Every structure is written in C-alpha cells, then in structure tokens.
C-alpha cells in the first residue's frame, strides 16, 4: 500500500527483454537505502517487486500483464520515473490509499500554465469515468492528486510547484501517456451497492 506521495524522481538505467516480459533497472538512491530482495517499490504508480539492489540501482521483473495495462512498456534508458516505497503502518497518510495496481492508461491532452502552477487535462478510459469526481482523489503516474473537473472521457488536475519540480508531471507534454489508478474506496462502494437486491 502506498500514499501517492512521490519520494524520489528516479531514472531507468536498463531495460532487458525476457521474452514477453522485461527486467527494469532503476536508479533511485533514496528508495534503495533500505530495499532488499522481495521489497515493493512503486514505479510511476506500478507496484514492482525488487529482485536485486546494487549501487543505488534496483531491478524488477515486469510481466506481460503489467506491460499491457500500464505505460511501463514505453520506458527506455534515460526515462525519468516517480518512485515511492510502501507505507508503514506508523506513517502519516499524506495522499490517499494507493495500491500500485494501475487501472488504465490516459494521455495528457493539454497543459495550461498558471502563475505558479499548471492545469493539466488527461484523457480517461470510459470504464473509469464513474470513479472520478471533482475534488476526489486520483493517482497519475503514482502521484496522489485532487481532481479539478471530471468528464465522461477526461479529467483535469492542478499541479503545484512542488509536483512540477519533483515528479515526471513537470516534464510530460500533450500526447504523453500516464498510468491511472482510481480511488479503491470508490470501487469497493460500487461493488457493495451493486450486490444489493
């Protein structure tokens, strides 16, 4: 379980094909400080399992299902990625409950710069629209954000200077893909209400 508060902007340093999967090598000096084999680290919002750690770089295997359902397949050496270690039970929940299970991929439609922030509009897969509400939470590339406006096929978010400076969303442009995870609480509520007869 994560919070969507990015700890570090890391970098892909290797992508090794393994048939229908890949092994990613990711540089992240902060998140590797206490990482061990079997630990979890969210990479652009995707929970990955650490295979090995050496010299501030960890490796993780990414299977076909994850490549098909996220934007991780588009990463190449030099790509910047958002990194977060899992939440400890004693930590503050600064963002919202994030599982690291991507629900779909959106595309940045537009960026509108403000004085100190940007408003970014992102396309939304139609099956996810029912989970998005204005002032609700959404995870974009592993970042816990508040929805400004929600539509049937898009939503907008406002990015503060800290988010622009310390995450991939400060660098992404219209046309770039982003991983999306909707609020898990909304999915549970839908399921519970749907089971009522």
Structure overview:
By secondary structure, the protein is mostly beta strands. It has 2 domains: 8-84, Elongation Factor Tu (Ef-tu), domain 3 (Beta Barrel); 104-194, Elongation Factor Tu (Ef-tu), domain 3 (Beta Barrel). Helix content is 12%, strand content 42%. It has 3 helices and 12 strands; from the N terminus they run βββββαββββββαβα. A 6-stranded antiparallel barrel has the order 1-2-5-4-3-6. A 6-stranded antiparallel barrel has the order 7-8-11-10-9-12. A hairpin with a 2-residue loop joins strand 3 and strand 4 (46-54). It is globular.
Q: What helical percentage do the residues reach?
A: 10-25%
> pLDDT below 50 for ≥5 consecutive residues: which ranges?
none
Largest beta-sheet details: 6 strands, antiparallel, barrel
- Element pattern in H and E: EEEEEHEEEEEEHEH
Second rung of CATH, namely the architecture of the largest domain: Beta Barrel
Helix count from the secondary structure assignment: 3
Distance between the termini: 32 Å
The whole-angstrom Rg is 16 Å
Identify the overall geometry.
globular
Number of domains: 2
Give the CATH level 1 class of the largest domain.
Answer: Mainly Beta
């Amino acid at each position: 379980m994560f919070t969507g508060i990015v700890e570090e902007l890391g970098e892909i340093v290797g992508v090794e094909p393994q048939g229908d999967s890949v092994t990613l090598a990711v540089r992240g000096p902060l998140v590797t400080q206490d990482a061990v084999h079997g630990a979890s680290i969210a990479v652009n919002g995707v929970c990955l399992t650490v295979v090995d750690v050496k010299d501030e770089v960890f490796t993780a295997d990414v299977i076909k299902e994850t490549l098909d359902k996220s934007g991780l397949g588009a990463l190449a050496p030099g790509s910047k990625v958002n990194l977060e270690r899992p939440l400890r039970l004693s930590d503050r929940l600064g963002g919202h409950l994030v599982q690291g299970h991507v629900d779909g991929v959106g595309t940045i439609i537009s960026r509108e710069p403000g004085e100190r922030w940007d408003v970014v509009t992102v396309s939304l897969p139609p099956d996810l629209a029912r989970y998005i509400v204005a002032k609700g939470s959404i995870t974009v590339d592993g970042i816990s954000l508040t929805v400004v406006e929600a539509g049937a096929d898009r939503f907008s978010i406002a990015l503060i200077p800290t988010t622009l400076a310390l995450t991939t969303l400060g660098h992404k442009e219209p046309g770039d893909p982003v991983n999306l995870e909707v609020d898990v609480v909304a999915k549970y509520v839908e399921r519970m209400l749907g089971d009522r007869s």
